[in-house]
């Protein structure tokens, strides 16, 4: 869905679940001086929604929907729509209109918390509390509340700040702050992921790697913003990196020009992805369970599927087949999944997939609170080591909530009988 401002207002709009917002200028989200005189204005928002991909309606009427079944499309502006789509959307404009109404002092307090520099400490605590709340919701298998629902016709500015604007603040923190695990920011991690995905030991241009990273990792800001980060990862002079993760071939700048990014981008620079140190430090064991983004797998071929468990296949730069098993979340608002296994051999991947497919999906459906990397690591390890055990053994060993055993065993038995019948 694309959202546009009908009137000349400064209300910021941010992408939300089931809705795609389009702006050509990223700076239009939050101007430097935000006016606090919007309480007397009635802001109307025009929205458009593809009828054949009505995400809200699917979530409402289907009990189970996986992120892999939802097409991911990045809409930059109204120019992304065809003339036929524009006529269809605006012919039923009343259905897609959402009114932003002023609700009183609560709206004033919400905007003051979000934009007033004097409340920066309270704002930090507010963002931290919301992030912790959402983390607990994900661990417990609960849905994250969103502002826009299928039948939403009007919202208050307070609801907009607490349910929609907060998404921007959280995403900004995730994008700007380095992780304690590996020291990477989100964009840097996407670059390293792309290098592993390419599995290429030859030289490549900075521009080519930036473009491929933006395409294969759903990086929505464009490849030109990745080029300075790639250059920094390859710099090896004093004052740049302790260890350069990419090998520079050519002139990647010097210490006196470290702040002048324009000089770097004008160079015809090459870099090699064959840094042996990188592959040793960030090596991933085949059976290690890691959390991944769904957008990275939308172009992969599906070899086999059993509900939320999917076996993918893709080719790297050497035309070598790679196989990966993913366990998708149900109704995932974060569009994340769990990578359970990676291999270059189809037979090994299929054997491991067969061991998991009849037990793991239904087990995780009943126990969503165990849907984490550490819990899945132990469960998959137990299933792989004991392929002949039934659901009762798996639940008894891995789940403390033994009272659900009969229900899961009955469902598992019905599923096996149905498969044997066919």
TrEMBL record:
SUPFAM superfamilies the UniProt entry points to: Type II DNA topoisomerase (SSF56719)
GO biological process terms on file: DNA topological change; resolution of meiotic recombination intermediates; sister chromatid segregation
Keyword field contains ATP-binding: yes
Domain Topo IIA-type catalytic: 177-422
Pfam family, one: TOPRIM_C
Signal peptide extent: none
Catalytically driven reaction(s): ATP-dependent breakage, passage and rejoining of double-stranded DNA
Enzyme kind, highest EC tier: isomerase
Domain of life, per lineage: Eukaryota
Protein name (Swiss-Prot/TrEMBL): DNA topoisomerase (ATP-hydrolyzing)
Lineage start: Eukaryota, Metazoa, Ecdysozoa, Arthropoda, Chelicerata
């Amino acid at each position: 869905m694309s959202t546009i401002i009908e009137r000349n207002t400064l209300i910021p709009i941010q992408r939300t679940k089931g809705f795609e917002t389009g702006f050509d200028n990223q700076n239009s989200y939050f101007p430097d001086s935000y006016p606090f005189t919007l309480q007397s204005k009635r802001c109307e928002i025009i929205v458009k929604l593809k009828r054949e991909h009505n995400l809200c309606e699917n979530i409402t009427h289907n009990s189970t929907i996986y992120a892999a079944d939802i097409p991911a499309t990045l809409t930059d502006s109204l120019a992304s729509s065809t003339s036929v789509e524009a006529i269809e959307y605006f012919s039923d404009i009343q259905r897609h209109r959402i009114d932003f109404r002023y609700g009183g002092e609560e709206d004033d307090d919400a905007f003051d918390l979000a934009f007033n520099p004097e409340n920066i400490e309270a704002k930090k605590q507010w963002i931290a509390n919301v992030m912790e709340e959402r983390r607990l919701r994900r661990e417990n298998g609960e849905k994250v509340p969103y502002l826009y629902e299928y039948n939403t016709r009007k919202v208050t500015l307070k609801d907009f700040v607490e349910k929609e604007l907060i998404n921007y603040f959280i995403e900004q923190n995730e994008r700007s702050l380095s992780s304690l695990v590996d020291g990477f920011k989100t964009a840097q991690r996407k670059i390293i992921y792309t290098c592993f995905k390419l599995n290429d030991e030859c030289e490549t241009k900075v521009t080519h790697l930036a473009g491929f990273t933006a395409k294969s990792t759903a990086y929505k800001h464009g490849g030109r913003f990745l080029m300075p980060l790639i250059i920094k990862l390859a710099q090896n002079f004093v004052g740049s990196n302790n260890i350069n993760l990419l090998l520079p071939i050519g002139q990647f700048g010097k210490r006196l020009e470290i702040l002048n990014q324009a000089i770097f981008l004008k160079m015809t620079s090459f870099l090699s992805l064959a840094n042996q140190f990188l592959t040793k430090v960030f090596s991933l064991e085949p059976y290690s369970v890691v959390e991944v983004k769904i957008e990275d797998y939308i172009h992969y071929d599906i070899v086999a599927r059993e509900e939320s468990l999917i076996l993918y296949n893709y080719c790297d730069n050497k035309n070598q087949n790679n196989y990966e098993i993913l366990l998708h979340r149900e109704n995932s608002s974060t569009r994340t999944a769990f990578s359970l296994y990676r291999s270059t051999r189809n037979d090994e991947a299929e054997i491991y997939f067969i061991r998991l497919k009849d037990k793991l999906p239904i087990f995780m459906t009943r126990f969503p609170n165990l849907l984490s990397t550490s819990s899945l690591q132990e469960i998959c390890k137990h299933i792989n080591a004991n392929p002949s055990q039934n659901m009762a053994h798996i639940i008894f060993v891995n789940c403390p909530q033994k009272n659900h055993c009969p229900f899961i065993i009955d469902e598992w038995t019905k599923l096996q009988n149905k498969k044997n019948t066919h």
